Amino acid sequence: MRQNPSFAMTDVTELRRVIAQNPWATVIATGDDGLIASHYPVLLDPDRDDLTVIGHVGKPDDQVLHLGERELLLVFQGPHGYISPSWYGDVRAVPTWNYTAVHLAGIPEVIDTEANLRVLDDLVAHFERMLPQPRLMWQPPNTEEFVRALEAGTVGFRLSPTRVSAKRKLSQNKPDEVVENVIAELDGAGEYANPALAAEMRRAHEARLARRG
Questions:
Q1: Which of 177, 173, 208, 165 minimizes the C-alpha distance to 96?
Q2: Fewest CB atoms within 10 Å of the CB: 31, 151, 161, 185?
Q3: Cβ atoms 104, 48 nearer than 8 A
């Protein structure tokens, strides 16, 4: 991802927030026939406070991706959306796309069966906890035999990235009044309303104003 200093994200707390809020990752590797991409939920490692992540792939994706042997690129896509030049006022402008993205790259560690079971348990709990009556992985009618059979069809991994690239392109290069108008348009009821992107822009804008004092 080409980097622009104006849009760079480097704060680990913010990177962790984006990853935690957008766990559906694109997993990219160099396969035997060229680049290959898969899609899996990936979580921050609960035992770490850095950018280490945990996840799993289904067999035979582990072989296709050469899991544990070759570098993986994990892409986490945050809020994104179309920005109309009409929102900038009466100035020369063209459309653009605002977005937030985090890229983590490294050779993952393939974890053992018991660690993979914990990863699967964490994944289920992470998403089920939002429900009024969550169904956890070990909860009946699931049996241990059933859960272990499912685990046997997956391969778990832990990735501590050796390369990190993150970008938050949220109109930081525009005057304050333009940024505020774009946020208002995204928060409105128009064709390109996008409350999630508006919230991400507002967060970045308020942080920028705070740094100015």
A1: 173
A2: 31
A3: no
Q: What is the mean pLDDT of residues 71-77?
A: 98
Average the pLDDT over 89-112 and give the result.
95
Instruction: Please choose, from the candidates 101, 20, 26, 19, the residue with its C-alpha nearest in 3D space to the C-alpha of residue 57.
Output: 26
Task: Using DSSP bridges, classify how beta strands 96-106 and 34-44 pair: parallel, antiparallel or unpaired.
Answer: unpaired
Q: Which CATH architecture has domain 12-212?
A: Roll (2.30)
pLDDT tens for 128-168 read: 999 999 999 999 999 999 999 999 999 999 999 999 999 99
Q: Is the pLDDT of residue 208 over 90?
A: no
User: Residue with structure tokens 């508006």?
Assistant: 198
- Residue 72: partners with Cβ closer than 8 Å, 6 or more residues away: 27, 28, 29, 65, 105, 106, 107, 108, 159
Cα–Cα distance, 62 to 123 (Å, whole number): 18
Q: Is the pTM of this model over 0.70?
A: yes
Q: How many CA atoms lie within 13 A of 56 on its CB side?
A: 23
Domain ranges, ordered by start, for the chain: 12-212
Other beta carbons within 10 angstroms of residue 98's beta carbon come to 23
Give the amino acid at 143. Answer: T
